[in-house]
Amino acid sequence: MMSLSSISRLVKLLLITLLLAGCTSERESDKQWAHSDLSSYAAAFSPNGKYVLVGDTDSPARLWNIEENKVVYTWQNNEEVGTTTAVGFSGDGKVAATVEQGGVVSDKKSSFRNEVDIVEQDVIVLWEVATGEPMMRLSFPARIKAIALSQHGDYVLLALYNRTVIYFDVIENRVLQILQHDGKAVNSPINQLINTVALSPSGKYALTGGDDQTARLWKLETGEQIRSWKHENSVNIVGFYPKGGYVLTGAGNGQTHFWNMKTGEEKYILRTSSLWPADKPLPDFPTFKTTISAIDFSTDGKYLATGHSSRMICLWKVATGEKVDCWQVARKQALRPGVVLQAVAFSPDGKSIYSEAGNGIGQKWILR
After folding, report:
1. Does the CA dihedral 283-301-43-338 come out positive or negative?
2. Integer Cα distance of 98 and 75 in angstroms
């Protein structure tokens, strides 16, 4: 019989092998463009994969034509340049949104409180992509952490730093729903911060993920919570499968899940390490956990691209969750080694993946 020490050594050897299998090789991009003077705070690709909107730390937001490497529009709220903290597109790609840090204002007419108060505010500007002209300017008496736009840009879903999510009717200029994450899942008596939001293509549902380690599915017509999925860490990314029926949720330094909306059952977990048997539960070990920071589905719905906080990009088969490939973005500056992938997208022809990183560099990766 094997001794306990021998078994322990074998287990450690297996884990080391799996860890090495989870490592990916560095790869040089096929094309790259500098999209920010210093570093970017946020980025989003247009649904058609033609443009990328980059929010800079100390410059106006810029809409770039990717392949032509040309600034199409430069957008800011006013003459005083502020940090663009979030950006997004409507589902049809005709409306873009920028969120800029505002100042402090005397809040006399807030729908969130009755008393007069001095509060921080962020400003959202909705822009017409075809002309570059501003369509709407919205101010909210709270800092905005995340934003999602509806199919035509007439509704926005906002995660606020006051621990609420609001579903807002842009045309009617009114709040339709206020969503919150209570702290029960993490044994907390207070509501938890919500980090990420998504709107379904139909506009009927919302997804939210928060510090309570849960992702929640909501029916927007009534504000009813339909599903809640518990994770091991704070949920930092959520998304709807564009063909319908499924959602993706992921936790920081945790696992990323693909769920059936109707039943609530898990279809699979994305596995960056391919050696572990698919029919066995994943062990609690770092090689099986990764922070996904960006996602995009191919136009035909067959593939999923993921960007990670560890400068990694992966390609997956949606039907099975099988990993097709993973690679790491090459470091360009030794003194700025961190490369968080802020956005990924399939090119219009589906033969490449675009990525946008926090170091202000956009890159193109031809699929092989």
Report:
1. positive
2. 8
